[in-house]
Amino acid sequence: MNAERAAALATDALIWLAGRPEDMARFLAATGAEAGDLRRRAGEAEFLGFVLDFLLGEEDLARDFAAAAGLGPEDALRARMTLPGGALPNWT
């Protein structure tokens, strides 16, 4: 997955979260962001990584998003690995 596609998927996830007020409130609380930060930072790859981190932190949430977006269950993880801070560490 390329960076452009990963950012688009994460933006879709943010929009999806916005339609779920309880989950959005938990996202804002978890990240320390405020509602005004969403518009300002929605185009930042690092912030979009935070969106996917939150989503992937809860299996039910990740599964619901994938189903709603017509994605495979692994697509959000691939996108997260593409965005800054998402690469798996190389321990060797």
Question: How is this structure best described in words?
Answer:
This protein has one domain (3-82). The protein is 71% helix and 0% strand. It is built from 6 helices and no strands. It has helices spanning 3-18, 21-31, 35-41, 45-56, 59-69, 75-82. Helix 1 packs across helix 6 (75-82). The protein is globular and about 30 Å long. The relative contact order is 0.20. The mean pLDDT is 89.
- The gyration radius over C-alpha positions equals 13 Å
What is the general shape? globular
Sketch the major β-sheet.
Answer: none
Helix content: over 70%
Based on secondary structure, the structural category is: mainly alpha
What is the H/E order?
A: HHHHHH
Tally of discrete structural domains: 1
Task: Please indicate the percent range of residues in DSSP E strands (runs of 2 or more).
Answer: under 5%
List the helices and strands and how they pair.
Layout: H1 3-18, H2 21-31, H3 35-41, H4 45-56, H5 59-69, H6 75-82
Helix pairs in contact: 1-4, 1-6, 4-6
Quick summary:
The chain has six helices and no strands. The protein is an all-alpha fold and 92 residues long.
Brief descriptors of the model:
globular, 6 helices, mainly alpha, 92 residues
